[in-house]
Amino acid sequence: MAEACKLAAGNWKMNGLRADLAEARALAAACSEPGCGVLLCPPATLIAPMAEALAGSRVMVGGQDCHASESGAHTGDIAARMLADAGARHVILGHSERRADHLESSEVVAAKARAAQAAGLVAIVCVGETEAERDAGRTLDVVLGQLAASLPDGSSAANTVIAYEPVWAIGTGRTPSLEQIAEVHDALRTAVPDAAMSLLYGGSVKPGNAAEIFAIGNVDGALVGGASLKAADFAAIVAALDAA
Ligand code: PGA
Fold it and tell me: How far apart are CA 21 and CA 197, in angstroms?
């Protein structure tokens, strides 16, 4: 069975001005040795300049969302081809902040993932339960339900990465126990259409907890928010994944 690729992905969310490209350059300098995949997903305004700044380095660039259509009358939206044209290799889709702020259903996420894959991008599809859903004992139902509905036909390890992000762990400093992460990742491994698909954990990953999370079976990397904004913190997380 093919092994899943390791990936440390950073999500800058709605943070970052051109001056912050210095952090991306510092990250590339700190990760000059070959190892796991390293990805930064800045706001759309920084994709092209970041891709230029990181050309030839180990750090890839991605987007945070795309539209399901190839082009057209969709003011304010960005097509997957445009992300690819700007230098993106990946795009995060179905992040819980978009599911909440923009009412994105799993069906919408699947349509976006189809568009991303057709444009040659790797779709990083996010799934995760709320705290109320976990308290009600519905974590696996919710996560596996989102997974099944968010992946278009034809999703494979080559064009899709899954990120398990418990909503209550994002930006809160709280993380599930290692056993809770393992339970969800084991279930995801069984449920994905291609066993070699990379499974990332996301939610308050920091330099201090990265190594223990990466030691869990079926965890192939992380989707990192806050700690990806500072090169030193994200480089430490990359080093932990390299060592795992
Ligand atoms: P966080 O965000 O690392 O700041 O908790 C994770 C995410 O939303 O991807």
Answer: 30
